[in-house]
Amino acid sequence: PALRTGPPDGGWGWMIVAGCFLVTICTRAVTRCISIFFVEFQAYFGQDYARTAWTHSIVDCATMLCAPLGSLISNHISCQVGIMLGGLLASTGLILSSFATSLEHLYLSLGVLTGLGFALCYSPAIAMVGKYFNKRKALAYGIAMSGSGIGTFILAPVVQLLIEQFSWRGALLILGGFVLNLCVCGALMRPIALKEDHKTAPEFLEQDFVPKDQKRDLKRMSVCSPLIKVWSHECLCYCSWKEYDFLLMPGFMVLAVSVLFMAYGCSPLFVYLVPYALSVGVSHQQAAFLMSILGVIDIIGNITFGWLTDRRCLKKHRHFCYLFAVGMDGLCCLFLPVLQNFPLLVPFSFTFGYFDGAYVTLIPVVTADVVGTSSLSSALGVVYFLHAIPYLVSPPVAGWLVDTTGSYTASFLLCGFSMIFSSTLLWFARLAKKIKRTHLQSLTNDTGTKQHIWTNGAMAYSVTAELDQKDVECLAVGTSSYGHR
């Protein structure tokens, strides 16, 4: 396709948003609804909280751990191929899970295979939205990511009904068929070529490796495209470095560390909200309804926060909006242990769901602000990859705390403090950056006004006091030469 000067901010981009919306329903919403199977798995296989929790945590871990693989396939083959392949794998995993005879079977089928399928779909679909939108990027992401909330709102009671009518095996089989819709989503992902994505190959590649008849094509293709024709080691190394050079950016490093603590804090709640509600006397339908509330308010958080942060007054402060939302979710987790009946758990679902939707929407936006649109797909792959270990570890650790203490209090407090630390870390990093910038500006203002002037007849040379010794010597030579002339 012809190179565009910038994202179209509309047109087929809204179909991309619709496709990403369906992807988030089929991936993140389905993953959340797996927590509804928790009690069924525990009762059927007769295992404790910690071992049963591995099922959910492996799904999340595989989804995030393999996110760079999804970005790699999207960048070098096709976003459409990656998402369709992911849909087939995820559906196969859910169908095989319906025949499980042990938790280990579920770990492999529901955890690894389905999680891998979700990974091939999730980050490429999200990155594609960033390719089509700039001015309304946060709003587009808000709509696209709201699929997670809408899907949870609809699927939570439906899954509970399916379990009651067809048992957990029948429910997983039906979900396997539903997830095949990811193949339809993949067909909507029409690629787009932007000038900012165009990277010229190094001069030695153009001279030594690319034939003359291909140089014209090289100007219209990214550096990764000639790999198929050239297959040179030098080109491969150059491509890999340019795709992941953002890893050395200080801003991205701080964001990455913050994501680790945020992911650790948010994951256990989606696993244990339903079991916790059941433990304090809430009925099965009411517990599923709490997940539905969380899901529908998640939608409002997605869209309203996306719209608000696109406003001129907040567009420059998206980073602070993100850390505020993460911190508020952490506070919600701290208060959860004292909420021990359905009327009190409903406001919790409202508040936690809203801010969860808010920061989830801003993750790709903040990442794009840090690394730029051209590296967004690879950067999102890394960001979601960083979710993997916390997602894998946090639910079993929370389950171990429940088994050990006989209460959910320690688990929820650990989650809350982890998210608050994530938010505080980002705040201190931004504060330190602002102080450093102010200090450098003050130094520049102090030294920039001091100038030394050398004159020779009618000519004058003006340089700042920041010149180093070489510059002074060069200037002296130049002045002397002028005098001789």
UniProtKB/TrEMBL annotation:
One GO MF term attached to the UniProt entry: transmembrane transporter activity
Q: Name one GO biological process term.
A: creatine transmembrane transport
A single Pfam family, by name? MFS_1
Q: Which keywords does the record carry?
A: Cell membrane, Membrane, Transmembrane, Transmembrane helix
Query: Is Transmembrane helix tagged as a keyword?
Result: yes
Q: How does it sit in the membrane?
A: Multi-pass membrane protein
Instruction: Tell me which family the UniProt entry assigns to this protein.
Output: Belongs to the major facilitator superfamily. Monocarboxylate porter (TC 2.A.1.13) family.
What is the official name of this protein in its record?
Monocarboxylate transporter 12
- Gene designation: Slc16a12
